[in-house]
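Q: what sequence does this backbone want?
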């Protein structure tokens, strides 16, 4: 009889990634199964340093997303839960409502389609004529608009911190994962850049911009690649021009919502983002280049197929990136009073967008499983809004894997 040594596991579930989805997962696991030992590995010195902490802070209503999808279901549910969570824990938030404004006749059918989609998703929507827009936003002009009451804003970094504290998980900072040894019969051992080894029964991959790389380290092929898109923002020097949130009518062919105006919880107004390919996964400026990551992105066939399919859209986004005047023109469509001097550059974000081999942009949240692993492979916006329901779903799968271990 062969003696198999007993493994000293450091935790039951190991979560890679200390963004809002990873921390919501840790929170959901310990709520659903008290006593489960959870460790979170975060390569940065604190939580929420990337997608979670570098967005416009919007609690999305769920109006944009195709009925029945995870995005639609989780955003609608998540918006209500996020507002309640912020109120319960004293986190800065506000339910402001938002306008989606059509400025060209060609956008009117799409605006009407959003009304129908919102109602299918159970969202209260008010349709406005051109003269009624001023009731909500006196400086905004358009041919028609819709008002969505349930949209709001909050401090997602504070939410992430609170989720981490409330989960009771051990959070290890400065713990970049460099190697994973996954053995279906025994569990997972993870080596960090500092030389630490962490052993767990089950691994949950919430690594955001690096989730596909982490999946491959476990031995699972994600069948998508993360393509980083930088979103560049400005701050409005005259915030009194905007009362709440103002969005254009989005192009349904893309998961991006266009340049919009967001009055945050601090009273400032964010303008943006656009969406341009980044030259590094954490490429927050044109001067940030990672040759290895850029080459790996270029090697994925889906990138070139995506480019051939959407090059006109991409050129418009690039133009707004390199030309402030072009960016201002996009804003003036809705806010004619804005001047170029009103826009002050501020911190950019990077969206982790999963792209299929055929060039398709994954337009829903994507969660996949392997032996003793759960991978979150596409969780860009509205993932922060939907983080509590996403966390419960990932937790359910992780606990299922733990029960089977």
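A:
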């Amino acid at each position: 009889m062969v003696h198999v040594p007993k493994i000293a596991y450091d935790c039951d579930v190991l979560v890679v990634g200390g963004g809002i989805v990873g921390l919501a997962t840790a929170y959901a696991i310990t709520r659903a199964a008290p006593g489960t030992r959870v460790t979170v590995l975060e390569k940065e010195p604190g939580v929420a340093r990337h997608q979670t902490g570098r967005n416009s802070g919007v609690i999305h209503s769920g109006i944009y997303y195709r009925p029945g999808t995870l995005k639609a279901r989780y955003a609608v549910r998540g918006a209500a839960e996020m507002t309640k969570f912020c109120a319960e824990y004293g986190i800065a938030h506000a339910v402001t409502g938002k306008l989606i404004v059509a400025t060209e006749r060609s956008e009117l059918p799409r605006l009407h389609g959003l009304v129908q989609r919102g109602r299918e998703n159970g969202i209260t929507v008010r349709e406005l004529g051109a003269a009624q827009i001023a009731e909500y936003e006196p400086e905004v002009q358009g041919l028609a608009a819709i008002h969505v009451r349930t949209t709001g804003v909050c401090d997602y970094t504070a939410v992430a911190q609170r989720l981490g504290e409330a989960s009771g998980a051990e959070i290890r900072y400065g713990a970049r994962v460099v190697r994973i040894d996954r053995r279906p019969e025994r569990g997972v051992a993870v080596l960090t850049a500092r030389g630490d080894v962490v052993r767990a029964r089950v691994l949950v991959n919430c690594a955001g911009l690096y989730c596909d790389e982490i999946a491959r380290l476990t031995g699972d092929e994600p069948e998508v690649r993360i393509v980083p898109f930088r979103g560049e923002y400005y701050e409005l020097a005259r915030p009194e021009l905007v009362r709440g949130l103002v969005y254009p009518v989005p192009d349904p062919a893309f998961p991006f919502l266009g340049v919009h105006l967001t009055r945050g919880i601090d009273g400032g107004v964010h303008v943006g983002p656009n969406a341009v390919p980044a030259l590094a996964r954490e490429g927050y400026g044109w001067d940030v280049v990672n040759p290895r990551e850029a080459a790996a992105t270029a090697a994925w066939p889906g990138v070139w197929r995506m480019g051939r399919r959407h090059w006109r859209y991409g050129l418009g986004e690039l133009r707004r990136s390199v030309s402030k005047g072009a960016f201002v023109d996009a804003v003036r469509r809705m806010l004619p009073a804005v001047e170029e001097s009103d826009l002050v550059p501020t911190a950019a974000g990077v969206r982790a967008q999963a792209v299929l081999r055929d060039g398709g942009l994954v337009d829903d949240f994507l969660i996949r499983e392997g032996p003793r692993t759960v991978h979150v492979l596409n969780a860009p916006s509205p993932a922060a809004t939907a983080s509590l329901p996403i966390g419960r779903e990932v937790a359910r799968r992780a606990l299922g894997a733990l029960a089977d271990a």
